[in-house]
Amino acid sequence: MTITVRRWDASDYLETTDDMLAYLDEAARTGDPQLLQAALGDIAKAKGMTDIARTAGVGRESLYKSLSTTGNPSFQTIAKVIEALGGQITITPKHQAA
Questions:
Q1: Structural contact between residues 23 and 39, judged by C-beta atoms closer than 8 angstroms
Q2: By the number of CB atoms within 10 A of the CB, which of 3, 29, 77, 93 ranks highest?
Q3: Nearest to 28 by CA among 74, 98, 87, 72
Q4: Who contacts 40 (Cβ-Cβ below 8 Å, separation ≥6)?
């Protein structure tokens, strides 16, 4: 009996803008920049890297590279991608556990 295993890809499950922004928000809440970068990459892949790059005003190849696991996107690129996704960056106080 042969078992086929396929790598799980979050982009396969991100169907609506609300799904994408909720996923991105949760990644941002972790405080882990690498997780946020990975989430942006998943969302861009789900929505279409070419469309996101065009809307954000960055090159498609540059966006692929920036959002890869070895990429190092600038804050400007991150902000443009979030805006292209229909989101915005908001800062709120971090709540301390009592």
A1: yes
A2: 77
A3: 87
A4: 24, 67, 73, 78, 81, 82
